[in-house]
Design goal:
heterodimer, A: mainly alpha, 5 helices, B: mainly alpha, two-stranded antiparallel ribbon, 32 helices, elongated
Chain lengths: 136, 741
């Protein structure tokens, strides 16, 4: 598909999509947002790019490896639950660094790690589907 | 092989405990696993376990050394050794487990690792078939065993074997006695290849020879015998126990030996004699007298020693000559003196010739059949026939291969390397040493027989019992056996003429069952999954409707008053918009229009979410709708022509399904709203979201903290779905594609 508006626009929009997705991801704990939605936003940006420039080019341009993202996301999600075990709690107990307060995000803790895992996995899944459909 | 050090170390450790265990001590240790259900990892080292554990680790070390050379140059050896060590560990766990559930888990693990090992040559169809056969039969029996063990546990009021063996009376009172016994027997029969399940064992010879030597003669197939021996204190003396074990053990024993002498493949001969030996063990356990148990324990050791040795030799012969056919092999002794000597020793032990350990074992077996109160002549003669055929088979394995006629081989064989000779040599030497100095092993075997048969008279192994009935019978067996061997040897043509119709074999029944099962599955699949997406969806929706109706039939239709004043203007606008969009989706003449209309419905739902204060949901919904459009754009031009159904009947069918679904959903919503929502969950989540979850967004806190295990499950499904979609798209071939859409 060749649309001049889209091909010109998406170059500018990609960083915005990406930044916005990060914003959604980190604000998610206190305001609407979260890993799932953020993953969708990020992958929508890349999907629009892929529609215009093809999957292969998108993959190379942004060095995307969807399966790797899925695996990494899953790993993060599982590990976030394992950290409390090391600290002597049961699996998936939320642990927080209470002293630190980060703008937008709030206090860092294991649940945010879990949410990052969700983010990567959702993004990876959507990209995988889109790339495979494109290449078929 | 460095790996061999592990079992060797375990063997060495076991030997350090040899003295205390043979003195009657029991070493145990235990870890809780699922304490609420009485499941723990408790291990117990007594005489019987010790005997098996020594066999597993000792022969294991020899086999690993041997396999290191045997498998050299073959592909995927890392996988092979992993499975072999996995098997070793599971088998060790099996014989040491005291808890019946962990025993079962180890039992199943041996089945699985055996599956991998039999299927080592997985490019070969026959190999795959054999592996599956073994797995299905042993795992199928495993299910029966699990049920039996659980009944045993419930009836006996304990999950620990060491407790259960003392609680036979409690079990009898509970009324679960017979059921537990039958189920456990079935499980053990499948594992130990008893008639009519015996056929998987000869098929399992598709595995590399070290595996056959280890799993299918010395260890795994004895697991069934082990368990029967283990539970014997509970069931010994019960109705049916004797009869079942005697009859099936006896049939297996005679049948196995008979088929063995008709074979020409070295490994098949060994496999069928193993089947026969297992039958003998089961029969001895079935006789159940003190002397029979002693005979069984002795035979376990004797058999493991000579059969393991012979299997390894068969592997050497195959490796060096490239053939396992006894008609082709011959006069190998000159080229392979060490192998030949070991083979002769093992065969003499198998034939039960003094001063080898097999002789002692045979004497005891005769003693136990003669000593039976009822049916003594029948079992004694069954044993006589088997013994005779064993002698013949021993002759075939040694004389025909290493002496006899000139071989018909193209290549010149030579002696195997030391790593491969070590195994058979050690086992052969043990057969001699234990035969002559039987006192060495006497305390352990005594303890083992005490475990199986409490209060058994002390065992006193001796080579020479004086001239008695047993000895005379033994010698007669030998003479008859040599005659039988001569007959087989000089009439090869006659032997090869014997053909048994496939239809009376149990394997035929197995094959028929498997074939009809596959046929049935194919038919069902063709009906349910015919490749039309619309059929899939109506199936799913239809199934849901039926299930929902089953639940809903107990509820009435609630009476809900709907006031027009409850609606706000934009509620009505969105509602009308969605209804109109739905209508146009259905009647749309092009796919693009239908998709766009569906999008309108989706955005409508998102608006509803916004209005009712669920921004997270709305955001997700909008993004999903957008992505759906993107996806459709990607595939639109690849899809086939848009189908519009003109036939009234098809239209009506789909209309019916959707109307039913809509009605049921409405009903459910009405039901839910008719109940007051006084759930305190909602307030609890709202209140504790910040103090406990450090977040003000309740939805997100629930997702990533309170219920994050659910989320983890969901994202796993999502990841799997992505891989699945990739596979679906990637591996659909061109002609499949046309059908599938």
């Amino acid at each position: 598909m060749n649309s001049v508006i889209l091909s010109a626009g998406i170059r500018v929009l990609i960083p915005l999509f990406f930044l916005f997705s990060l914003y959604l991801l980190f604000r998610g704990h206190n305001a609407p947002g979260g890993g799932f939605v953020a993953g969708l936003v990020a992958s929508t940006g890349f999907a629009l790019y892929a529609i215009n420039y093809g999957a292969e080019r998108t993959r190379r341009r942004f060095k995307l490896k969807p399966i790797f993202l899925i695996a990494l996301g899953l790993l993060l999600a599982v590990v976030s639950g394992l950290i409390p075990i090391i600290a002597g709690e049961t699996y998936k107990t939320g642990l927080w660094l209470e002293e630190i307060e980060i703008p937008i995000m709030g206090k860092p803790g294991t649940p945010i790690l879990f949410d990052i895992g969700v983010y990567l996995l959702v993004g990876g899944t959507v990209l995988k589907i889109i790339f495979s459909l494109w290449e078929e | 092989m460095v790996l061999a050090l592990y079992p060797a170390a375990a063997f060495a450790w076991l030997m350090t405990q040899f003295g205390s265990v043979s003195g009657g001590e029991v070493i145990s240790s235990s870890w809780d696993w699922v304490p609420t259900m009485g499941i723990s990892l408790s291990f117990h080292l007594d005489g019987l376990s010790m005997l098996f554990a020594l066999l597993i680790t000792g022969i294991g070390a020899l086999v690993l050394t041997y396999a290191g050379t045997y498998m050299k140059g073959m592909p995927k050896t890392d996988r092979f050794f992993m499975s072999l060590v996995l098997f070793m560990a599971s088998m060790l766990g099996l014989v040491l487990s005291d808890n019946i559930i962990s025993l079962f888990i180890f039992w199943e693990l041996t089945s699985f690792s055996s599956y991998f090992l039999i299927g080592y040559h997985h490019e070969d169809k026959e190999s795959r078939k054999s592996a599956l056969e073994a797995l299905l039969i042993t795992a199928g029996g495993g299910l029966a065993l699990l049920a039996g063990l659980i009944l045993l546990g419930i009836g006996g009021g304990s999950m620990e074997m060491s407790q259960l063996v003392q609680r036979g009376d409690e079990l009898a009172e509970s009324g679960l006695f017979t059921a537990a016994m039958l189920l456990i027997i079935i499980g053990c029969f499948t594992k130990s290849a008893q008639f009519p399940f015996h056929f998987w064992l000869p098929s399992a010879m598709a595995a590399p020879t070290p595996v056959s030597a280890y799993l299918h003669s010395a260890t795994m197939v004895k697991a069934g015998v082990y368990l029967l021996a283990r539970v014997s204190p509970v069931f010994n003396g019960a109705d049916g126990w004797h009869a079942l074990l005697l009859i099936f053990g006896g049939i297996t024993m005679v049948l196995g030996a008979l088929i063995a002498v008709m074979q020409t493949d070295l490994k098949k001969i060994l496999a069928y004699t193993t089947v026969s030996a297992l039958g003998l063990l089961v029969m001895l356990l079935g006789i159940g007298t003190g002397i029979a148990i002693k005979a069984a324990v002795i035979f376990i050791l004797a058999h493991a020693l000579y059969k393991g040795c012979l299997f390894l030799i068969a592997g050497i012969v195959d490796h060096e000559t490239g053939s396992r056919n006894i008609r082709k092999l011959g006069r190998l002794f000159k080229q392979m003196p060490v192998t030949g000597t070991a083979a002769v020793v093992a065969c003499l032990s198998m034939a039960g010739i003094p001063p080898l350990f097999g002789f002692i074992s045979k004497e005891y077996s005769y003693e136990s059949t003669i000593g039976m109160v009822v049916n003594s002549p029948l079992t004694t003669s069954a044993f006589f026939i088997t013994g005779m055929l064993f002698v013949a088979a021993a002759g075939m394995l040694s004389y025909m291969v290493f002496f006899g006629r000139r071989n018909k081989l193209d290549i010149k064989p030579h002696e195997a390397p030391i790593t491969m000779l070590a195994g058979p040599a050690v086992l052969a030497v043990l057969s001699i040493v234990l035969g002559v100095f039987s006192g060495l092993i006497n305390p352990l075997l005594d303890q083992a027989s005490q475990v199986v048969f409490p209060e058994n008279e002390p065992l006193n192994l001796k080579l020479w019992h004086g001239i008695n009935t047993e000895l005379i019978l033994s010698m007669t067996t030998l003479v008859a056996g040599i005659a039988a061997f001569a007959f087989v040897y000089y009439n090869p043509r006659l032997m090869s003429m014997i053909e048994i119709s496939d239809k009376i074999k149990p394997s035929y029944a197995y094959k028929q069952t498997m074939d009809s099962l596959a046929e049935l599955a194919k038919n069902v699949t063709q009906r349910v999954q015919n490749g039309y997406l619309r059929v899939y969806i109506s199936m799913m929706v239809g199934t849901f409707c039926v299930l929902a109706l089953i639940v809903l039939k107990d509820f009435g239709i609630p009476n809900i008053e709907v006031l027009w004043s409850d609606f706000r203007v934009y509620d009505i606008v969105i509602g009308v918009l969605m209804i109109v969009a739905c209508f146009y989706t259905v009647v749309a003449k092009s796919r693009l229009l239908a998709i766009a209309m569906l999008g309108v419905v989706g955005y409508g739902v998102a608006f509803v979410f916004i209005i009712f204060g669920a921004p997270d949901l709305a955001m997700t919904q909008i993004l999903i709708e957008t992505l759906t459009v993107v996806l459709f754009v990607l595939v639109l031009w690849k899809l086939p022509h848009y189908l519009i159904f003109d036939e009234g009947f098809i239209k009506f069918r789909y209309f019916l399904v959707s109307a039913l679904f809509g009605a049921i959903m409405t009903w459910i919503v009405m039901l839910i709203t008719s109940y007051p929502l006084d759930s305190h969950l909602k307030t609890w989540f709202a209140e504790s979201s910040y103090p406990l979850g450090m977040g003000r967004n309740v939805v997100n806190v629930i997702l990533v903290d309170f219920r994050s295990l659910d989320t983890l499950g969901e994202i796993v499904v999502l990841g799997i779905a992505a891989v699945g979609i990739y596979g679906l798209i990637k591996f659909t071939t061109e002609d499949d594609k046309e059908e599938a859409i």
